Amino acid sequence: NTVLLECRRISKTFPGVKALDNVDFTVRRREIQGLVGENGAGKSTLMKIISGVYTPDAHTEDPDAGMYIDGQKVLFRNPKDAIDLKIMTIHQELTVVPHLNVYENIYLNHELKDRSGLINRKLMLQNVRLLLENFEVDIDPKAIVGNLSVDKQKIVEILRALSQDAKLLILDEPTSFLTDSQTEKLMDVIKNIRDKNIGVVFISHNINEVVNLSDRISIICDGKRVGELDRNQATVDKVVRLMIKDKGKLQLTSEKTESSGEPLLDVIDLSVGNKLKSINFSLRRGEILGITGIIGAGGTELAKALFADEGFKKSSGTISIEGKQIQIRSTGKAIQSRIALLTKDRKNEGLFLSFNLYENVTIPFLSKYRSWLGLLSRSKQIKAAQNYIEKLSIKARNPNIRVETLSGGNQQKVVISKWLETDPLVLILDEPTVGIDVGAKFEIRNIVRELARAGKGIILITSEYEELESMCNRVLVMFKGRIVKELAGDQVNRTEIRKHLSGDLI
Predict the structure, then answer these.
(1) pLDDT of 479-506, one tens digit each?
(2) Which residue among 70, 77, 145, 260 is the one 20 to 30 A from 87 at the CA level?
């Protein structure tokens, strides 16, 4: 396979930080090149240089350093330069227009026109049908995109790039929030794209996916390429050990936590309209209770019902904490009842990104930080935040730093800090490690284990089998708003879990 893209000794310096340090990186035609590294390692900087967002540092003493496309040296001044050379980036966040149909989305901003300058819908539809056939994609070109599943919406985005004759496709976390079956379908499409003589860069925090899909894998750590593995060399363990500088992160605390057996939370016959139906379960002190299911099975809805989130207030049933029945009519009442919820959408629901760290940590209980005059005490807030920076090893220069500048893993630690400051008995975690790098995942999982050991009851809603298997004492499998199976002990394994994902009451 001929080399499509070659980066020779690429460096990028920001004020006080060397983000990339003499990085070599190549992508061949008809190849999927995996790219992995912890948050802050330099992956995003490298991709932004390749896609024209950043320009690399000048190498006056090394004239061969730089970026080459098909053997020709190039310097992109802006993203249009990259697009003109058919380098297309598909970002993690969806950019489809929900109310438009498939072929309109695929030709968005590069519509085909007839001689009179009018949009030629007939030709666009015809071309999209050929595109779908060529890449073996089963989607109705006239379907409204907002009615499609998330994986098909992602495929529509990819087809938009392919309709512009992309020869290098950069996929940034394309499988976030997809189910296993949806991920498998997307992987098949990506392989078909590669087989059409297109180069693909696949970026993901899911190392299993990277190892299974990629023809080669490049590993970046601290701004340097520290390794490259071919398909026949790569294992998850090899990749993880190359990408993580601090090997201490790889040490999970031993064995699952032991619950005291003392009931902490009891949920009896809980229903929420047509979202949840007759939910019954208990949570013990010191227990990590897993909840899983396909997307839309009801885990997130259950979390929001227990937290009395708007639109999820119970229509029937009872909730008891430490044997005492409670009425949770608002999120404020849930916090007073010592229930906390870490939502899966940390950026939109868990944090105020433009606020600084100490404001985010202290915002649920501002009354704790008032002076004797009733004024908010900034020094008390900063002291509380500094405690969590040290306790949870948050990588932040100081409590005044704006949360939007932190990595995903450190943002998640801030959300955990915020809820720990409310002193909860029950902590509900909804997909706590989605979209964060593998090192941060290890850290978050260890934090959760320690919280359980301290006597808190943890409800862990996750689609990651590894988390369920390694952390949970019991697992509840949900389907269409119901609990269809409880698994415990040796039953907590991916084979048993998969049996019940489709709602089979075995």
Answers:
(1) 999 999 999 989 999 889 988 887 754 4
(2) 145
